[in-house]
Amino acid sequence: MASVQDLKRRVRSISNTRKLTRAMELVASARLRRSQQRIEALRPYADRMLELMAGTAKAAGSTKLPLLQGRETVRTVGIVPVAGDRGLAGAFNAQVLRRSFALMREAEAAGQAVRFFTVGRRAQSTVRFRRLPLASSWTGFSDRPAYADAQAVAHAVAEAFVAEEVDRVVLVYNAFVSPLVQRVTTSDVLPIGTERLDRADPDEERSHPVDFFFEPEPRQILERLLPVYVETELYRALLESAASFFGAQMTAMRNASKSAGELIDNLTLAMNRARQAEITQEILEVVAGADALTQ
Predict the structure, then answer these.
(1) Which end of the chain offers a freer environment for a tag, N or C, measured as fewer CB atoms within 10 Å?
(2) Domain 32-248 falls in which CATH fold?
(3) What is the pLDDT of residue 60?
């Protein structure tokens, strides 16, 4: 049995750890609220962007723009896992990487090559450790992404797609549902399928479609809108991932604090029993000594 002093040291150490986990939980909670506000502000903009692009594509008619052109044969798939720069967030990073590697196995089974475009240090280090093809990586902004960060990722994957280095780009990230729930989501970013534009066509929801005048020509407007749409989709994924990270970290730190409290209670009980055993032993020694003196 451990001594009373050893148990005291363990209780003190775990108490310090619990203070740290509680502080991290409070910080994650505050950052989560800010991330939620950013997502709520972006979602209407992203929806309107898709509707605007759908209406412009309909006005442009059949047009062949690089980002809209699907390949008859998909030879290479680009996978973009959006993970965090740090851990201590439960299964947040692991579940994104697990889904990404599942997509990789599916692509390889279909005879397709895979290239990774990683976001976050955790994704970068895992892909490099496994010695998988890494085309590009971005780190340092997973906690608070800016639109410029989404632009950098979007430009890289769009250039790879236009240059036919990849024939399909899949985004894998944690979508924020609630502080307790983060759903792993996969989304085909490129090519931009016509079915996606058809679902977002605003005229289909109106009984009286509206005629618009376009200046310049719809094709030129669409050519400018497509890269912005890719940037917006990536920015939304980065914001969703940031909020999911803080939600997962808050939950993980709360569970850690709870486990630390239970462990402190168990150690305190063991310490009290050890102290009682020492007192009992001392009493027995005193009684034994008194008996020896009376004999």
Answers:
(1) C
(2) Pyruvate Kinase; Chain: A, domain 1 (3.40.1380)
(3) 65
